[in-house]
Amino acid sequence: MTPTPPNPPGGSTPPLVKPAAAKAEAADETARKEVVRQLRGPVAQAFKLLMPELATAEDPYKAIMGNAELLDRCFKTFQTKREAFAPFLVDATGAAVTDDAARLACGRSVNEVTGMAVRSAMRAFAETHFAGGPGTPKPATKTIAEAQRAGWIAAIAGMFKQRNAAKGVRAAPGGVAQFYPAIRDALDFSWQVPFFPIYVEIPATLFEKLGVGITRLDTAEKLQRFAKLASEDIAKAEQVMGDPALAKEMLENNVLAAESVSQMSAAEFKVVHDALASLDVKQKWDIFANKLTALTLGQDKRISKADIVALAGHLGILNEHAVRVIFDLELGREQFGTFLETAAKALGRALYMALFGPIPVFGTDEAAARKQKTYVGFIETTLKGLVTAVKTLKAKFQRDAPEVISECLTLVCEARRDGIAAELRNFAPTAEFA
Q1: Using one digit for the tens of pLDDT, what is the confidence trace for 138-154?
Q2: What phi and psi, each to the nearest 5 degrees, are found at residue 96?
Q3: Are 139 and 66 in contact (CB under 8 A)?
Q4: Do 125 and 151 sit in the same domain of this protein?
Q5: Helix axes 266-275, 281-289, angle to 10 degrees
Q6: pTM listed for this prediction
Q7: Same structural domain for residues 235 and 221?
Q8: Range of the domain at 89
Q9: How would DSSP label each residue in 254-285?
Q10: C-alpha triplet 398, 400, 404: angle, nearest 5°
Q11: What DSSP assignment string belongs to 94-155?
Q12: Which is nearest to 317 in space by CA: 352, 346, 272, 271?
């Protein structure tokens, strides 16, 4: 009989690592080291040749990873000048790779390398932030758009900071040691880099609960809405749903849906949720996150579950005023799609989206808020005007055929198109509504 080997001093026999698993781990570590080697060496040098900001950097990799704005510019440079990185974008056979999800010779895909870089840069940014250091020099020049976006992001970061201070909460008790592990697994995309100043102001406990629910908010406007979202709203939304699995699904796909769900009754939520069952799960929660549209669907007594089912494929872009137009005109379900297609054709796609589509956000300051309020008023008034004109014209036609609404809508839209476009240019001077 083979004797049992003695336990090692101070403990029990360690579990055996399966050879296949050990081999996979070793291969994974080898691939990681190769990626880091290339990023530190030839890839960083390629960026140095392409970007004036790095021309004098002794260690371009360190400069990039220590400065979120530089990293953001590097990602943009990579996308616009991919040909400069062709030597690295090949597979194990040397064939060119154009799919960012495909495996490269280094053992990782472009998407995976991007995630690695974002996580490393987040850690460096967080270490500087929580140490209270002066940070790293920023790029010397910014475009007007970059400066405006940076100001908006700083304002949103300030909102989280003030919110935490009001509640007596530190953004991340324990500093980077608690913050980074909480956010690490929720970072994957290059567009997350500009939001680092916001992320470090969000409590680590919130990342531990929501994770990708926060880091999948892909615009400053969505993060601004999240800053205004109270934890009580999330708790109330969970109560309305009454299903922990469904609540988890919401938080992972679009946490902003909690704002509208929290203001619904359980019955209203069930009607809307069941009516959207045919949609992709993210599409469903994105519709709930469009707060006023979602509340209109749940609370307007003219709208039935069958109506929502018929409209489901269009609800991803319709604002609440556009939804009301459909029911103000007393359209039959079979007319919904035709009506919207007619409006888009008669107005032109750009003008149709400006009137019927999501309401844009103009910024965070008081002037922007006033402009947005005026814009919303214009959209509501204009759509009501279209309804009145279509009804008046329909009455003159003295016909009840289903196609009459479309005929009237076409005539009204074509007659008013230029005037509406001229008014909209006051809000967006460079927009084209042809």
Answers
A1: 555 666 677 777 887 88
A2: -65, 140
A3: no
A4: yes
A5: 140
A6: 0.78
A7: no
A8: 34-133+146-225
A9: -TTHHHHHTTS-HHHHHHHHHHTTTS-HHHHH
A10: 85
A11: S-B---TTSPPTTSS-HHHHHHHHHHHHHHHHHHHHHHT----PPPS---HHHHHHHHHHHH
A12: 352
